[in-house]
Amino acid sequence: MATLAPIALFVYNRPRHTRQTVEALQKNELAGESDLFIYSDTTKKPEAVEAVNEVREYIKTISGFRSVSIIERDRNWGLANSIIDGVTRLCNEYGRVIVLEDDLVVTSHFLNFMNRALDKYEHEQQVIQVSGYMFPVSEEVSDDALFLPLTTSWGWATWARAWQFFDPDAKGYSRIKTDLALRKQFNLNGAYDYFSMLEAQLQGRIDSWAIRWYLSTFLIHGLTLFPRQSLVMNMGFDGSGTHGEINNQASYITHNDNPLCQRFPEIIAVSNSWTMICPQIGRRISLLGKLARRVWQAFFFLPRKCNMLLANIYHRLFPKKLYSIGEDSKLYQDAKVCNFLLDSSKIKIGKSTHIRGELLVFAHGGEIVIGDECYVGEDTRIWSGKSIVIGNRVLISHGVNIFDGQTHSLSAKARNKHFRTIISSGHPTEINLGELPVIIEDDAWISCMSIILRGVHIGRGAVVAAGSVVTKDVPAWSIVAGNPARILKMIPENQR
Fold first, then answer.
1. Which of the 8 DSSP states describes residue 291?
2. Which architecture does CATH list for 7-165+220-294?
3. Per-residue pLDDT at 252
4. 225: closest CA among 156, 129, 318, 317?
5. pLDDT band at 299; cut points 50, 70, 90
6. What is the DSSP track for 235-281?
7. Is the link from the previous residue into 484 a cis peptide, with omega within 30 of 0?
8. Which residue in the list 17, 109, 315, 427 is annotated as catalytic?
9. What are the backbone dihedrals phi and psi of residue 240, each rounded to the nearest 5 degrees, phi first?
C-alpha cells in the first residue's frame, strides 16, 4: 500500500459511543500504522458540559495508532462545519482522508478495505468516495464491492482531487430546481426526495454537509465504491445524538466482521444491480427521514419513548438481530426490542412465541429469556437490568409492566444525574439500581395492567388478576389480586 490515509474522528458528548468507536478501530490490523486526528467539539448547552469533558478526558488516553492528534474546538462548530473543516485540512495535507463519527463501529477489516480502495482508484476521476457502509439491500454482484451514484456519511473516505468539488454554498441547486428530469435522477429516480432535503438546507432548517456533498458529486457524475457487505454499524440509535439527529440511526447493518474484500470492480461504472436496489435504498432512507422528524419531537418531550422508538426502528431497518428468536415465533408491527448491551444472547425468545409488547435490556446489564408458546400483549413492557426469565406457555396480557430493578435511584440527586446522563450521552453502563431477578414459571397467566416488581418469583400455573401489583413471591397454582397482591385462592387439581 501507499502511505495510509489519516483517520478523522469527530466527537462531541457521547463518551460511551466514542469508546466503542475507538475500541473497534483499534482492532484493525492497520491501526498501528495509521495517524488518528480527533476533532472534539465543545458544548453549546450547559447540560452537555460534563459529557463533553468526559469525552475529552477519554480521548487523551487513546493509544494503538501511529500517532494521535487532538483538535479541541474552543467554540461549538456543529457537526457539519467541523467535518468540512477537518476533511479540507487533512485532504490538503495528506491528499486523502478516512472519516468517522462517534457513533460508528467498524469491523476489523475496515481500514484495509478503505486504504486499498483509496490506492486502487486514486487516479480514477469518476470515483469520488469510498464507503465503508452498505445499505441492507439484496444485490447480485460478482465482486466484493460495487459502484453506486450516491454518497454516504457513515464511515467514508475521499481524495483531495474529489473534495475540491465540494460546494458549501450548494450553487448547483438552481440546475436541479429547473430541470425536472435531472431532479428525478437526483432523487434516486423518484425513490427518495433528496431535493426537499436540499431546499431545507438552503432555507436554514437543517445544517447538513452530506446533502451538499451529494449535490456536488451528483453534478460531476461521481461514483462511490460500496462494499458488498457493510463494514460499519451505526450505534447512535438510542436517542443520544444531538437533536436525536439521524446521521444516524442506522439501519441495523450486518456487522459480523465480514471477511476481507478481495475483488474490486475493474470497470468504473454504475453497478448493473442499481436499477433493482435503488427503490430499496430509497425506502431505507425514507424511513430514516421520517424517524428524524419524530425524533426531533420525541427527544425533548418524551425522552424514554424516544429511546424506545429509535431502538425499535433501528432494529427493524437492519438485518442483524439484537435478539435470538425461535422457529414460528413472531414480533408484530407494534412490538419493540431495545438491547442497549448490543448482545443478541441477552434477549432470547423461544419457539412459537408471539410478541406485541416491548422488551428492553439496559446498558449496564440485563437479560430477558422467554420460553416456547408464550404471548406478550400490546403495551406490555418487560425491562431488565439483571434477569427476567419467563417459562413456557406463559400468557402476559396487555399493559403489563415487569421490572427487575428500581429503574432510578431513591436519591433525588442520583435520579437527576441519571436523567441528565441519559439525555446527554445515553444510558449509563455503570449504575446500581438494586436489581433482583424475576422468574415466571410455566403456564402462568399475568392479566392486564398488572405490575411485577423486582425479586418476584411466580410459580407454575399461577394467575395474577388484572391491575395487581406483585411485590412478593406467588405460589404455584394460586390466584392473586390487589395492591399489594394477596392470595385469593388455590386452583383445584382438576382445573390445572
1. H
2. Alpha-Beta Complex (3.90)
3. 37
4. 129
5. very low
6. --TTTTSGGG--S--------S-PPPP----SS-S--TTHHHHHHHH
7. yes
8. 427
9. -90, -10
- Entry pTM: 0.60
pLDDT digits (tens, 9 = 90+) for 263-290: 899 999 988 878 778 877 876 676 655 5
Provide mean pLDDT across the span 401-407: 91
Please name the residues in contact with 52: beta carbons below 8 A apart, sequence gap of 6 or more.
Answer: 12, 13, 40, 41, 42, 43
Q: Tell me the residue ranges of DSSP E strands in 363-485.
A: 368-370, 375-376, 381-384, 388-390, 395-396, 401-403, 438-440, 445-446, 451-452, 457-458, 463-464, 469-470, 478-481
Q: Which CATH number fits domain 321-495: 2.60.40.10, 2.40.128.110, 2.160.10.10, 3.40.190.290?
A: 2.160.10.10
Cα–Cα distance, 103 to 441 (Å, whole number): 39
What pLDDT, in 10s, does the model give residues 354-386?
A: 999 999 998 888 999 999 999 999 999 999 999
Is residue 427 part of the annotated active site? The answer reads yes
Set of cell numbers at residue 47 = 447540560
Q: Of 67, 323, 115, which is closest to residue 231 (Cα–Cα)?
A: 115
In the block, residue with C-alpha cell 425479586: 455
Is 344 or 449 the better-scoring residue by pLDDT? Answer: 449
CA distance linking residue 394 with residue 249, whole number of Å: 34
What does the alpha-carbon distance between residue 156 and residue 313 come to, in Å, rounded to a whole number?
24
17, three cell numbers? 459511543
Q: Which sequence spans correspond to the domains of the chain?
A: 7-165+220-294, 321-495
Neighbouring C-beta atoms of residue 451, cutoff 10 Å: 21
Compute the residue count for the chain. 496
Which residue in 106, 79, 49, 70 sits closest to 206, CA to CA? 79
Distance CA 51, CA 54 (A): 5
With residue 347 as reference, give the H or E element that holds it.
strand 347-349
Q: Which three cell numbers stand for residue 309?
A: 422508538
